[in-house]
Backbone:
């Protein structure tokens, strides 16, 4: 692409040009939004101009209000009448609170659809203090809730006028969260604002080249965007893509396009201005359309036709115009241009119908599209990571925020075979399946889940919805992702009807058990994970109760031990599957088999249970043909006992549970490091088979107080397998570093003339420079903890995240 030569335009001419574009965008909002939403849209500046107890959002008489140069008009009065709220055309004598109110994003563009939200930037007066901003935030939170009553999503962002120019002073104006990118992107966020904003009230934004003047709002120049910001911005867009991957894919690819031009700067903002100077205010002068065209040109130059095809589908779906519905086409200003594009792409009418019916896509269509999106997102991220690895991280980026984003993404994109991945429903209104079938591939030793298949003949050419190592994997995945209802019919391909009944039994038992409402907070992500929910599934395969000929009523009467039952000391437990949800929001499923399956399962669980809290849930699902209630009850009691035991251990003692298992007796030794089990020697005079009992071992010897001996004890509570963790303690001229690697191997060093901040920056940069070589490490950024001593007690605190931020949702 040729370098754009900026044409110098007089101040007045530039203002006229920019205002013409703003007016055009306001007209497009009216053409794009449903009428009731458009009237609400017009009310946004009015609700910030007036602070009155009869106006929506009111919470406090001291809440700052008023917008620079605000003027009342008939459209606002009409909107008040439509919304049935009071109209107060009063100009306050108090100084105005806001330099301007602006919509940004897709509101006036090709990218606006019925599900799009509206993002509002409130650029506030620099004289406002923290108390003022707190009052405004309270009001905007109430306004967001008020708009939501009308199915209109409006998000507000407070922006200091110097936030982008003097970023070090205002990094914490918008901390990282569900809607705020924190320090992950900065100048690239400003560029998006410049290319998409609509002035609703207040000062005109100086967004074009060389714009200046006291009557303009100047937020900053886009001359020197640091290369490393493309890494932070890509992390943020991928995080946003967990909910809306089709939208994130377009934005991540735009970052890739921008990075390919670096250090030259060919921003969409520049293209829009060139159109304005040429007096081109047609459909071509649209930020979202230009975004697509930039990506198209880039991918064509690389001959990446497959990526381009998915991009085209994402762009079409983002527009939300159903070209196969003639009535909608006639009423939309974008339809003619979009129709021409789809013809240029040689799309058949069948593809248009499929995309227009996205609200009714079944799980198979969703799974295919999700796989394409995730693959392309990772491709772009890898390219951006490789680009960023050549440059230093920007000083303004908070690496702890990047770590939170990476931790969230690691759980989603990692290839751990035990992970149960989420199926994004995208636009689909529901993914319930009337018929599901499980087929076992003997060749690959894998279980395959299919929809609407009941026989082997139908398998040919069909793509599985999900593939797992165990049958519990696939059933749990289907339940977790909402494919299953109590009416779903199950089939076991090449299996008996009894097997199909067992699938249905397991699915029905899991539907009320699997909890999807758990909210992940920053506190969870910057600490070690723990189990939020554990479901133990007993005897789904190889059920020993099938050949047991006893009477269940006698087991209850004799208080029988299902782990060592009757004269033959039979263990009625064969296979164990552990379905778990951890505090990072990740679902996993693990299988344990063999004589000591139960002991291995308990050993696997205990550290995650040690860190668990009172909200954590443990339950048992028994799939046994017989003794189901007895197995469920005894295992529930045992798990509860193990939970109470691991919670009760101290650093100085070990607790023991004695457990009968078949014809052997085992000792389960619990300490702060976990649980190990050992066979106990049986003597005829003392070897009694009974319920588990608790005994206390002798206390451990006292540990030295400083500096290293106590540290492993305290950090054991934070260690997570698979994560690289630094535990740091600042000494006078040195830094004590305890490193626990991904395999829980511990090392200890003391560094001269090093601060915590320096080491965190150094290790984060090392991650960026090297992780692009290993897909498993893409998002596995190190965790950093600060060791501090308070009142004589050594404590572990997450580095860089304040207590105020900890509880916020993420």
Residues:
């Amino acid at each position: 692409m040729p370098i754009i030569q900026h044409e110098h335009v007089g101040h007045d001419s530039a203002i006229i040009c920019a205002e013409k574009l703003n007016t055009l965008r306001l007209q497009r909002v009216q053409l794009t939004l449903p009428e009731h939403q458009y009237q609400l849209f017009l009310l946004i500046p009015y609700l910030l101009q007036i602070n009155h107890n009869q106006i929506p959002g009111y919470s406090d008489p001291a809440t700052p209000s008023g917008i620079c140069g605000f003027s009342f008009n008939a459209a606002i009065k009409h909107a008040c009448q439509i919304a049935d709220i009071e109209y107060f055309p009063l100009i306050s004598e108090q100084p105005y609170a806001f330099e301007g109110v602006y919509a940004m994003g897709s509101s006036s563009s090709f990218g606006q659809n019925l599900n799009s939200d509206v993002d509002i930037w409130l650029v506030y007066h620099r004289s406002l203090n923290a108390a003022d901003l707190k009052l405004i935030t309270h009001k905007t939170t109430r306004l967001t809730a008020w708009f939501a009553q009308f199915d209109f999503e409006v998000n507000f962002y407070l922006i200091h006028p110097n936030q982008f120019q003097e970023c070090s002073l205002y990094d914490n104006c918008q901390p990282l969260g569900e809607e705020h990118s924190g320090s992950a992107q900065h100048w690239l966020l400003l560029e998006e604002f410049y290319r998409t904003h609509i002035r609703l009230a207040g000062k005109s934004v100086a967004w074009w080249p060389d714009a200046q003047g006291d009557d303009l709002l100047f937020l900053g120049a886009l001359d020197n965007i640091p290369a490393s910001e493309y890494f932070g911005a890509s992390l943020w867009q991928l995080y946003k893509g967990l909910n809306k991957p089709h939208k994130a894919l377009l934005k991540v690819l735009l970052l890739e396009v921008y990075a390919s031009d670096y250090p030259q700067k060919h921003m969409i903002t520049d293209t829009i201005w060139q159109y304005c100077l040429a007096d081109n205010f047609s459909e071509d002068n649209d930020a979202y359309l230009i975004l697509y065209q930039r990506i198209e040109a880039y991918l064509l130059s690389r001959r990446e036709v497959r990526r381009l095809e998915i991009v085209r589908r994402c762009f079409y779906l983002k527009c939300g115009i159903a070209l196969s519905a003639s009535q909608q086409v006639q009423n939309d200003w974008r339809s003619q241009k979009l129709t021409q594009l789809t013809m240029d792409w040689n799309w058949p009418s069948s593809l248009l119908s499929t995309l227009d019916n996205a609200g009714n896509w079944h799980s198979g269509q969703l799974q295919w599209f999700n796989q394409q999106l995730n693959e392309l997102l990772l491709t772009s991220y890898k390219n951006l990571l490789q680009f960023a690895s050549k440059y230093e991280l920007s000083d303004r980026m908070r690496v702890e925020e990047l770590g939170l984003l990476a931790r969230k993404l690691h759980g989603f994109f990692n290839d751990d075979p035990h992970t149960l991945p989420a199926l994004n429903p995208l636009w689909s209104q529901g993914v319930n399946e009337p018929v599901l079938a499980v087929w076992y591939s003997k060749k690959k030793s894998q279980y395959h889940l299919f929809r609407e298949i009941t026989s082997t003949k139908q398998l040919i050419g069909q793509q599985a919805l999900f593939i797992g190592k165990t049958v519990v994997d696939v059933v749990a995945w289907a339940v977790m992702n909402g494919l299953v209802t109590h009416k779903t019919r199950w089939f076991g391909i090449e299996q008996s009807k009894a097997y199909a009944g067992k699938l249905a039994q397991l699915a029905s038992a899991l539907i009320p058990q699997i909890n999807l409402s758990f909210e992940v907070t920053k506190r969870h992500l910057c600490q070690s994970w723990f189990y939020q929910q554990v479901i133990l599934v007993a005897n789904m395969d190889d059920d020993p109760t099938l050949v047991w000929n006893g009477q269940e009523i006698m087991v209850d009467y004799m208080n029988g031990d299902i782990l060592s039952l009757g004269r033959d000391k039979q263990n009625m437990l064969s296979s164990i599957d552990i379905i778990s949800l951890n505090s990072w929001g990740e679902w996993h499923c693990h299988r344990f088999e063999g004589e000591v399956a139960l002991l291995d399962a308990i050993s696997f669980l205990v550290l995650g249970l040690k860190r668990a809290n009172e909200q954590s849930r443990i339950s048992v699902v028994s799939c046994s043909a017989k003794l189901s209630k007895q197995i469920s009850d005894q295992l529930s009691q045992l798990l509860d006992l193990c939970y109470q035991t691991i919670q009760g251990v101290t650093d100085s003692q070990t607790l023991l549970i004695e457990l009968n298992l078949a014809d052997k007796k085992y000792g389960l030794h619990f300490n702060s490091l976990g649980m190990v089990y050992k066979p106990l020697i049986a003597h005829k005079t003392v070897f009694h088979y009974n319920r588990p009992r608790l005994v206390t071992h002798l206390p451990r010897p006292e540990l030295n107080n400083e500096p290293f001996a106590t540290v492993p004890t305290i950090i054991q509570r934070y260690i997570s397998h698979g994560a690289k963790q630094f535990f740091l303690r600042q000494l006078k001229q040195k830094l004590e570093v305890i490193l626990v690697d991904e395999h829980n191997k511990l090392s200890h060093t003391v560094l001269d003339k090093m601060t915590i901040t320096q080491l965190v920056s150094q290790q984060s940069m090392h991650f960026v420079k090297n992780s692009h070589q290993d897909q498993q490490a893409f998002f596995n950024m190190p965790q950093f903890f600060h060791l501090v001593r308070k009142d004589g007690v050594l404590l572990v605190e997450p580095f860089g995240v304040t207590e105020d931020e900890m509880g916020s949702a993420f």
Observations:
- The radius of gyration is 31 Å.
- Residues 1-5, 168-172, 683-691, 698-709 have pLDDT under 50 and may be disordered.
- The longest strand covers residues 531-538.
- The chain is about 35% helix and 15% strand.
